[in-house]
Amino acid sequence: MKITCIGGVGTVTGSKTLVESNGVRILIDCGQFQGLKSLRELNWEPLPILPSTIDFVLLTHGHLDHCGWLPRLVNQGFDGKIYCTSPTKDITKLILLDSAKIQEEEAKMANEGRYSKHEIAEPLYTVAQAEKVFPHFKVISPNESVALDAEIEAVFTNAGHILGACSIELRLENKAVVFSGDIGRDNDVLMFSPVKPKKGDYVFLESTYGNRIHPDTDPKTALEMYINNTIQKGGTVIVPSFAVERAQSVMYLLWQLKEEKRIPDIPYILDTPMGIGMLELFANNKKWHRLHQEEFTSMCKMFSMISDYKETIEVIYNKQPKVVIAASGMVTGGRVLSYLERYVGLAETTVVIIGYQGEGTRGRQMLEGAADIKIRGKYYEVKAKVVEIETLSAHGDQKDLINWLSDLEQKPKKVFLVHGENEPADELRKKIQEKYGFDCVIPMMGQEYEL
């Protein structure tokens, strides 16, 4: 068996791991690179093998960094099945359509504004190309063995993180190879705790927060403080949010605060069409989350849901203090950019960062104290207060990741630390070796392993 790390190593984006066994080729995730320009440029590069030679794609979940390259894969010849859970299929459809639409819009604006370095800016893929992915989906249920080939089986188990997210165990060549996907938290606001693997000859474990412990800070108390302080100054609170699951978690906490009369009666706005679409998925997938129907209904009534961009413009120019949740979570695109163009230069604004910010993203730049940020070819001075609530991350921290390995019945032959920048991955490597004595390696982009 040969495994090649095509993406998602040395970085938290572009997840793609190729498994080759007895003439069968399986791609675990097919993510888009984000953040640094050097990474984004990889999205335009061909895979090291022809997509037409890949037999299956197995998706751990529907975030862009795990599914966002599928339209390119299909457009370049992939004609196999894409296995995933039902929520992941629905989320991936939302993500891909939204991503394609944003890319088409940004290419159009770049051409009209003439701020692209290319003579003609083109989207990475179009809406039409995204739609060609959908017939390839094959829905599976968690904990059921799926025969990919006469001698290859896959089992998906709940990983927490977001709706439908799973870890994947491949059984082949008398070995169990486990791919963690993104591991959620044991005490997440909405998601259930991740299921820990029992077997794993080889384990590919994410390391996003491999060097960090989430603080014990109560996220509700932090939100309460930031909102009240901002509203007293007559300002606006902007929460750049991943439309999938994080937006709903923030909505839930804000609803609780409002019910407890701890935050004022002002407009609370959800401005992300995909985030609004996700609410329907929450309603239709009750077994995947902790939220009760009565709470869900009351929570949704509290928010003004904005889909039409004309309404976005109206909200932006309304000077009334408000709280806005808008995608994207790393401030790499989406409607949050329109809000920041207007509000990031105002000292009374508060920007609340609630999720992981990849290297090179605007979210990371603001957290690191950037004096200005570039949006659509123009620079905007950052006068807004930028704060972070780490306890709202959908990713498990170092303790959660180490704990996820605790039920393995036998010592794995090797643990590969992926989906993390080099420093967090190396810190996690040391901790795992100290606690369990497991042999850990940190792959490099394009590295091959024969197992």
Features:
single chain; 451 residues; Metallo-beta-lactamase, Chain A; 2 domains; seven-stranded mixed beta sheet; 22 strands; 21% strand; globular
General description of the model:
With 451 residues, the chain is an alpha/beta fold. It has 2 domains: 2-212 and 394-450, Metallo-beta-lactamase, Chain A, CATH 3.60.15; 219-392, Rossmann fold (3-Layer(aba) Sandwich). Helices cover 31% and strands 21% of the residues. The protein has 14 helices and 22 strands. A 7-stranded mixed beta sheet has the order 6-5-4-3-2-1-22. The protein has a 7-stranded mixed beta sheet with strand order 7-8-9-10-11-20-21, with helices on one face. Helix 7 packs across helix 9 and helix 10 packs parallel to helix 11 (336-343). The longest helix has 28 residues, at 86-113. The chain is globular and about 65 Å long.
The unreliable regions are: none
Helix content: 25-40%
Tally of individual helices = 14
Please name the CATH topology of the largest domain.
Metallo-beta-lactamase, Chain A
Reported CATH architecture of the largest domain: 4-Layer Sandwich
How is this fold's topology laid out?
Blueprint: E1 2-7, E2 16-21, E3 24-28, H1 37-40, E4 56-58, H2 64-67, H3 70-75, E5 81-84, H4 86-113, H5 127-131, E6 137-139, E7 145-149, E8 152-158, E9 166-172, E10 175-179, E11 202-206, H6 219-232, E12 237-240, H7 246-259, E13 268-271, H8 273-284, H9 293-302, E14 304-305, H10 309-317, E15 323-326, H11 336-343, E16 350-353, H12 362-367, E17 372-375, E18 378-381, E19 385-388, H13 398-404, E20 414-418, H14 422-436, E21 440-441, E22 448-450
Parallel strand pairs: 3-4, 4-5, 5-6, 10-11, 11-20, 12-15, 12-16, 13-14, 13-15, 16-19, 20-21
Antiparallel strand pairs: 1-2, 1-22, 2-3, 7-8, 8-9, 9-10, 17-18
Helix pairs in contact: 4-8, 6-7, 7-9, 10-11
